[in-house]
Amino acid sequence: MKNETNPRTVTAYAAERPNAPLARTTVRRRAVGERDIVIDVRFTGICHTDLHQVAEDWGTGTFPMVPGHEIAGVVSEVGPGVTRWQVADRVGVGCFVDSCRTCDNCRAGLQQYCTGEVGTVWTYNSTGRDGLTTYGGYSTELVVDEAYALRIPDALPLDAAAPLLCAGVTVYSPLAHWGAGPGRKVAVIGLGGLGHLAVKLAHALGAEVTVLSQSLRKREDGLRLGADDYRATSDPATFTELAGRFDLILNTVSADLDLTAYLDLLRVDGTLVQLGAPEKPVRVNAGALLSGRRSLSGSQIGGLPETQEMLDFCGEHGIAAEIELVGAEGINEAFRRLAEGDVRYRFVIDASTI
C-alpha cells in the first residue's frame, strides 16, 4: 500500500459542454488519502440520468463532465488507514461517494437523503468536501473513501452487476420498504432498465408480479424474467379488469402518465411509488387516494446498507441486469439509442476500451 501526495491523472470520457458528444480526455483524481481506495474500473453502466445531466435537464452542470454512477471494478490500491478492503477485492460504487455522516439520515443508513452541511456528494457533477468536482465512472480509475464502496458478490459477473448500483437498488429499496413478498401483488409500470430488474427482484422476493406496459411487445421477455402476468395499458380493459388488485405499484418510467388511473388499480392501503422523473408536475385526482386510503409516494436509490443488502440478495439469487456491452467508441451511439428506448435492457461500458 502507499499514499500519494499528488493527484493522479486518469483517462476518461467527458462532455466538454452541455449536449456535447463525449470524447476521450484526461481528468485529475484526488491524491489517495488515509482511508481512500483506488478502484480499477472494469465496467460502468449507462444510466438515463447520464443523458439528463449532460443535457442539463435537471439544472446547470459542471463541465467537463464525466458521467457514470454504476461502477464495478477491482481494488488496485489502498490508503494506509483502510480496514475494509484489500487489493483485488471486487467492489462497486453507486450514485454517491460521500455525505455528512452525522445527520439523522446518514446515521440511519440513508445517505441519499443527507441533510447535513456537506449533503449527499454525488459520484459526478457534484462538489466534494475538498471543494473539487467529482468525476464519474466513464474512466479508468476512481478514488473513493472506503466507506462508500460496496462488495460485489463473487457469484455476480462484474459487467452485469454494474447496473445494480443504481437501477437495482432504485427498485429494490421500495420493494423492501413496502414489504413485497409472498401473498403480495406487485405491478411494475414499464419494462426497461429499471422495470426489468424490478420484475426479477419482486419475483425473487416471492411476490406475484404483473407488468403494465404500453403494448405487449415485450411480453415474452417479461414472463421470462419472472412476471406472472403482462398487460397492455393501451387496452382500456386492463384498467377495468385489474381495478383494486395490487398492494404495490412501482412506476419505473418518466413519461407523463395519468396516475389517477393507476391509483385505481390499488387495493385499500395500497401504494404507488414514483421512481421515474417526469418533465411535467404529477397530478392526481384526490378521490383516487381518498376512496381506498391509498398512498402516492416516491423513492430515491438506496443508502449504503440497503445497497449492500441488495447486492448480497442478487448474489444469492443469481440476479443481474440484462445488458448490452459497448466499447468507449460506442458511448455516443448508446446515448442516442437509450434516448430512443432502443436497448434491452441496460448499456454497460467496457472500461478497458477507455
Describe this structure in words.
The chain has 354 residues and is α/β, with parallel strands linked by helices. The chain has two domains: 211 residues, Alpha-Beta Complex (Quinone Oxidoreductase, Chain A, domain 1), CATH 3.90.180; 131 residues, Rossmann fold, CATH 3.40.50.720. The protein has eleven helices and 17 strands. Strands 3, 4, 5, 8, 9, 16 and 17 form a seven-stranded mixed β-sheet that branches. The radius of gyration is 20 Å and the shape is globular. The model has no long low-confidence stretch (mean pLDDT 96).
Summarize the model shown.
With 354 residues, this protein is α/β, with parallel strands linked by helices. The chain is built from eleven helices and 17 strands.
What structural keywords apply?
2 domains; Quinone Oxidoreductase, Chain A, domain 1; 354 residues; alpha/beta; six-stranded parallel sheet
The value of Rg in angstroms is: 20 Å
Strand content: 25-35%
> Which regions contain 5 or more consecutive residues with pLDDT less than 50?
none
Give the integer mean of the pLDDT values: 96
Q: What structural class results from the helix and strand content? A: alpha/beta
| CATH topology value of the largest domain | Quinone Oxidoreductase, Chain A, domain 1
Discrete helix count: 11
The termini sit apart by 25 Å
Total strands: the figure is: 17
H-E string: EEEHEEEHEEEHHEHEHEHEHEHEHEHE
* CATH architecture label of the largest domain: Alpha-Beta Complex
Tell me the helix content.
10-25%
Largest beta-sheet details: 7 strands, mixed
State the fourth-level CATH superfamily of the largest domain: Medium-chain alcohol dehydrogenases, catalytic domain
How many domains? The number is 2
Shape: globular
Oligomer description: single chain
Name of the CATH class of the largest domain: Alpha Beta
